[in-house]
Amino acid sequence: MRSFLFALLFLTLGVQAGKPEKTESDFTELSQYYFAAARIGDTEVLREFSQAGFPLDVRNPKGYTALMIATYNGNGEAVDYLLQRGADACAQDRRGNTALMAAIFRGEFALARTLLKQDCDSQQVNKAGHSAEDFAEVFGRDQMVRLLQQQRADGD
Question: Residue 15: which pLDDT band, with cuts at 50, 70 and 90?
Answer without folding.
Answer: very low
